[in-house]
User: Fold MATE family efflux transporter from Gilvimarinus xylanilyticus.
Amino acid sequence: MPQAKRDLFLHGSIPRALLTLSVPIILANILQAGYQLTDTYWVGRLGADAVAAVSVSTPVTFLVVALGSGLGMAGTTLTAQYIGAGRADKVNQVAAQTLLLVVVISAFLGALGFIFAPQFLALIGVSAEVYTGALAYMRTSFVGVAFVFAFFMMQSLMRGVGQTRIPLIIIAVTVVLNMGLDPLLIFGVGPLPGLGVMGAALATLMTQGLAAALGLWVFWRGQHGIHLHRALFKPDFSYIKKACALGLPGSIELSTRSLGVMIMSFLAASFGTLAIASYGIGANILQVITIPALGLSMSVSTLVGQNMGAGFTQRAEHIARLGAIYGFVALTLIGALTFWQASALVAFFVPDDAAVIAEGATFIRIMALAWGGIGVQLCVVAAFRASGNMLNAMVLALVSQWLVQFPIAYVLSKHTDLGIAGVWWSFPVTNVLVALVAFAWFSHGGWKRTRITDEDVQVQTVVDNALKDEGGLPRY
Assistant:
């Protein structure tokens, strides 16, 4: 990493450092969301059944991806802390070993997902009209899971060393290509037959494969902070053990969040095609709206990791607090604007279905004004992960999904007169409550005791510190 950038991240203005990292990450995330938004836009022209097919497939695919992503989080955390500690010799080894792990695991999980896709859909209970398209979309998505893992890991490692421009360029190229392929494969052109929902999945598969190949090529050239070569991919079982110990809580956390999304999809699907289509559109819009806060949280993660590695714990805490404040303000303002334009946003995706527009707009308006809580959660969780306290992030995910959101959604939708609106109301209630819990736990400060790059510190210390932190959750 260039000395000027290192000085900025470890000693310079925190707002400037956050801005320097955040802008390219936010732009990259906007483009990354373009994959799914482009699919949703063109699939929406096929009708509500096609939108529902994509909506029920996506959470299942995300769940499988999440199972292996904890290892990627461990690699990113170690990379950032080694950079902060001045241990550049360790960065290449961590990058190679982490890529090796995630590719092997993703290929295995993708194969399982492909085989058991019909059972997933049967469990969800999708209608006959939705089943065929959902199966085609889901299976094609599982084929590309290894590509998704590989490029996700490359992006994360690049962020760990403070390099955000190269991933932005790669994503820009592949998203533009996806935008061109989608209508061709979905509707067909000339002798090329239209493939419907499966065409959207194929377009994404092809472009994500290209993104993974370009990312690997950049690493092989070694001109942007990480330099890979064949010898580094020889399995290092001491690192694998360390990565697994760190990554397991991260995998549980991400899997919990993804499973929670899938369970909420099940609940919405129990109210019919209109409900699941409205949920899918609202969830896609939420994904885009939270991109600024997500980019900010990724910047917080990089800066907290590097400063923790350098031993600057107070600066790391200040970074996370500023990030949480910025995230709260930004998403609250965006939520107010979205509340005003909810119907127009839904109509952009499904222009010819008045019922979906009305229900989707209701969903968005109910949750929009509490989006500031998401900004707080994302930055606090980023600080926990970057310091190596994966267990803290895991506990927050478990509390959020299983003790707060799903029980509230189920009771309000099934045992009151609200119906599907009960599912919608579970979102703002959860965002506010979990943000308060997360910030209180962060303010307690136990997470600052962890440094996972010290060679004489065992990884178990990370878990021990989290458990010692006043029994896990803050007291009131």
